[in-house]
Amino acid sequence: MRGPCAALLVVLAVAPALAADPVVQWDAAEQHVGEQAIVEGRVLGVHCSPTSCLLAFDPTFNRFTVVVQAKDFHTFPPDQLDNRYSGKRVRVRGTIVDRDRKPEIEVSDPANLKLVETKQDRQDKSSKASEAQDQVLQRLDTVLDRVEALTERLVELQGNMQSLMAQMEANNQALMVLATPPPAPPAAGPAGPEPRPGWESMRSIKRGMSAGDVRRLMGDPQNVVPGGNGWSTWLYDDGRMISFDGRGRAQSLAGVPAP
């Protein structure tokens, strides 16, 4: 048979010979000396000298080892071998040889020495990912708490600003009223007892006093100027004035002697 069909039959006949190398556990490597195989195990130690590096699968270095010769240090830097492979599960491909009555495989290509991810490795990786996610969520909660606290402070600051603006507005309106000339006093009536000077009553006025107490001591104001947020300002003779907040408590006193 000739042509493409014959070539296909040759490929099919050769295919079994190209099958993957068998996987041998490291503690059975001495039973496969002379064979091309893949040896699997965990690296328990790394030792380097100027001529070679040994990766041991037994802490005594007396059983199966992987050897990297000095000529291959450019592909397997000695200062990186311990960090990369020690304590890790690996698979090494090559021919198992007997050297000094122990099996070993010499490697020169990183493709022939691969890390193996075990079920425990996957679980550890998943656990670390979960811990990292939890940390991110905790940090996010902390940030949200700080944003919430900042928002509350901004709301409080806005309320204080509004109260301050309301007081300033009331004071401005009171000043405008004071700038208006007072009305002419009424004609004098029959002589009577001289009224008590207003400044004597003003001596007992202080901040926080209710509007009722102020009215009892000072009498009715000549004028009342309303302000924002419930503020108001009472105006008396000679430029004296008292501003009340939304609760009806005296807050700003002008022209009033200290008690």
Would you kindly provide a brief summary of this structure?
By secondary structure, the chain is α+β, with helices and mostly antiparallel strands.
What features would you describe in this structure?
By secondary structure, this protein is an alpha+beta fold. Among the domains are: 20-119, Nucleic acid-binding proteins (OB fold (Dihydrolipoamide Acetyltransferase, E2P)); 163-179 and 198-259, Beta-lactamase Inhibitory Protein, Chain:B, domain 1 (2-Layer Sandwich). Helix content is 36%, strand content 23%. The strands form three sheets. Strands 3-4-5-8-7 form a five-stranded mixed beta sheet, with helices on one face. A four-stranded mixed beta sheet has the order 1-2-6-9, with no helix packed on it. The chain has a four-stranded antiparallel beta sheet with strand order 10-11-12-13, with helices on one face. A hairpin with an 8-residue loop joins β4 and β5. The longest helix has 60 residues, at 119-178. The chain starts with a helix and ends in a 5-residue tail after the last strand. The model is unreliable at 4-19 and 198-202 (pLDDT under 50).
Q: CATH homologous superfamily name of the domain at 20-119?
A: Nucleic acid-binding proteins
For the largest beta sheet, what order do the strands appear in spatially?
A: 3-4-5-8-7
Integer-rounded radius of gyration: 48 Å
Mean pLDDT across the residues is 81
